[in-house]
Specification:
Keywords: Membrane, Transmembrane, Transmembrane helix
Shape: elongated
Helix content: over 70%
Structural class: mainly alpha
Order of helices and strands: HHH
Strand content: under 5%
Number of domains: 1
Oligomer: single chain
């Protein structure tokens, strides 16, 4: 992981460096109940993806509902 962090630093990918550093620090401090190092690296990414996908899905759902309402209003008037 140290090599990957250095590579990301060399590639100027600050986000990846911070994610690796924070995940490693959380693992070292045992902030989660898990003993698996990958849980500290993958779970935050998965949670973030789910939140963003859920928000996108919600916005798409609202857009579809508003379009259906407009079509219904046009049909009835």
């Amino acid at each position: 992981m140290g090599f990957v962090a250095l590579l990301m630093l060399w590639l100027c990918n600050a986000l990846a460096v911070w994610m690796l550093a924070i995940g490693t620090l959380a693992f070292a401090l045992r902030l989660k109940a898990s003993e698996n190092y990958w849980d500290y690296l993958v779970d935050p990414l998965l949670a973030g993806y789910c939140v963003v996908a859920g928000l996108m899905q919600f916005k798409l759902w609202e857009r579809a509902c508003s379009r259906i309402r407009r079509v219904r209003q046009q049909l009835w008037h």
